Amino acid sequence: MSLWEALPSVAVVGGQSSGKSSVLESIVGRDFLPRGSGIVTRRPLVLQLHKTASGAEYAEFLHAPKRRFTDFAAVRKEISDETDRITGKTKQISNIPIHLSIYSPNVVNLTLIDLPGLTKVAVEGQSDSIVEDIENMVRSYVEKPNCIILAITPANQDIATSDAIKLAREVDPSGERTFGVLTKLDLMDKGTNATEVLEGRAYRLQHPWVGIVNRSQADINKNVDMIVARRKEREYFETSPDYGHLASRMGSEYLAKLLSQHLELVIRQRIPSIIAMINKTIDELNAELDRIGRPIAADGGAQLYMILELCRAFDRVFKEHLDGGRPGGDRIYGVFDHQLPAALKKLPFDRHLSLKNVQKVVNEADGYQPHLIAPEQGYRRLIDGSITYFKGPAEASVDAVHFVLKELVRKSIAETEELKRFPTLQTDIATAANEALERFREEGRKTVIRLVEMESSYLTVDFFRKLHAEPERKPERKPEKNANPPGPNDDLYHDHSLRRIGSNVSAYIAMVSDTLKNTISKAVVYCQVREAKRSLLTNFYAQIGRREKERLSAMLDEDPQLMERRTQIAKRLELYKSARDEIDAVAWK
């Protein structure tokens, strides 16, 4: 069961031109409803009356919570405009209600629902289903077990043909929820009256019938005050030879008190379930306010504290991504476990250590001086040239982790619930975080390049000692006919020797590759991931600590739709708390 179904309200039901609007205005004591011929009420109007101790009368609409209407002609126009906003300037209807609250010392606490008038035929400009549509809409309200039916019937119409009574009988056959109201008593033909209906002899209800005398069209044209109209209504019944004996139980003032007393009785009977439903709704609204955030404090210190708390909330989400509490951090491990090894395997060492290139480098390295034991300078140049290739994968690893961290920043901002209401602060945090990541990337790039250059700057001595300890075996060659005598270096530079040099350099580079695969990963984590966890927003904290209050307020600039949503929730929360207090007051009477 919804809260709407739990709270009792009064649905005003009647045919078109039965006087529904006039009855409502008489109860309120104000002229505020649109008038005209045909179908005027095209959307349900949920009207909440709040009795105040004193002060000026005013009205508020739920769809315009920031406006307070003291001019009730403006209330009438707003109802028309809001109706047209949904239905357009047509004769179509909509089941989307308009919520209106009126605060006045001249009303009783009451909730009324003005519904479109029942009709029997569609007129020009209306759909063929309008008759059925209106009846279905009215039924959707009056079928609720907690809905009190105010069945409006003109006195100059046969009660047996009343659309309101017919519908009330169908949804409330026992008559427990139905109050009958006769309007236009003053317009009956001379010599006729409605005493049989008002005394309950023509059609009996469990609640007494109430007669109403609305303002005449002449009074409406003259803008006769509703208070004056009420006085004239009392005088009519008190001086009427037909209804004088019923005068104390007739009139709009009596009807309002009767409905208010009955609502109070119903509320007393349903207090436990209503209170439970109201408390549940209040908890839901409070939870919604907590989710979208409470109003922002005006004090600069409080704003700074709030910004820092929001930054910490983002930082927690970011660290959860890195540490495995949320997905994404595993992509960094993927860079070290898959991307970096794959890049190292693709380096063009085969081309660099080809027989032809090895011969070229070794020949050029000795210059005019032949080497004595092994071509050491050739080895060094081949190794230096090979190690240079490691710079590409090293820098690529730095960039890959940088892009993962940037994506995690974006995701963390989007997933930080507390930040969603502050688009400006989201942008500021993203900018500050990305600037920090750029600094970490630059430091990471410098570090991995140093690691590669360190491998070039000092070769492992054991590698050369091993070469010296294992003398080269040279295959025997048959002397060619008419060949020149061999030179000092020719014997060493035959294919077998060159292959051995290339093989030795390849073995050394493989050892370096294994080393760098580990040290590059460590350097990237140390310079980028570790720093992102430790100090991603450190500079940002220092900056905002020096900012003036106006700039802090600008950072906490909210989405206008979210501010409007919070205002509406706060308004509803206030109404529910007020309703709970009023119900509690009734319960203890």
TrEMBL record:
Name the source's superkingdom: Eukaryota
Give residue ranges for domain GED.
498-589
Q: Which Pfam families match?
A: Dynamin_M, Dynamin_N, GED
Instruction: Give the UniProt keywords, A-Z.
Output: GTP-binding, Motor protein, Nucleotide-binding
* Homology family: Belongs to the TRAFAC class dynamin-like GTPase superfamily. Dynamin/Fzo/YdjA family.
Question: What is the protein named?
Answer: Dynamin-related protein 1C
Keyword check for GTP-binding: yes
**UniProt cross-references to SUPFAM superfamilies, sorted A to Z:** P-loop containing nucleoside triphosphate hydrolases (SSF52540)
On whether Thylakoid is a keyword of this UniProt record, the answer is no
Organism expressing this protein natively: Hibiscus sabdariffa (roselle)
**Where does this protein have compositionally biased stretches of type Basic and acidic residues?**
470-481
Gene3D superfamilies hit by this protein: Dynamin, middle domain (1.20.120.1240), P-loop containing nucleotide triphosphate hydrolases (3.40.50.300)
Give the start-end ranges of region Disordered: 470-495
> Which parts of the sequence belong to the Dynamin-type G domain?
4-272
